[in-house]
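Reviewers of the previous submission asked for a worked example of the structure-prediction workflow described in the proposal, so we include one complete record here. The input consisted solely of the amino acid sequence. No template or homolog information was supplied to the procedure at any stage.
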Amino acid sequence: MAFLSFVGRVLFVSVFILAAWQEFNEFGVDGGPSAKALRPKFNVFSKHVSSQTGLKLPPVEIRHLVAVTIALKGVGSLLFIFGSSLGAYLLALHQALATPILYDFYNYDADKREYTQLFVKFQNRKQVEGGRGKHPSERRTMLDLCAQPNEHLEALVLCRVRIAL
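From that input alone, the workflow returned the following structure tokens.
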């Protein structure tokens, strides 16, 4: 059973590891294509946050943001493979920070095609971060599942596969 748990953890984090490896190889001087794709979304996100809360986000170098995401994915994945709950928390932190920036459906009108596509992707990703139960005590989050990989291995792998599809 321990070997099966290890294999499941490796399969689960394979998406994170492969993404971190690809971003690392493409990083370059300017942060690579990830930084170019993230820059406009982050600018819109920071404007949205400042308009809604009145707080101005400090200026952030996008290549540093990409480097942090690579580190979170890489270190979190390696720790998670070896059964550390800290790795699960790092991966969950990455998901929680990246989701509202990458899936900015709130910037589109509800009747636009882009809104529907981004909203569906956002909902799929949200299902991994926090499951829905009938009662609040039944709700399971990705953190809960990742903290106990031996008990919930099948659910973790199925959630990650569903998001990848």
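Residues 57 and 152 are 37 Å apart (CA to CA). We consider this example representative of the routine output the project will generate in years two and three.
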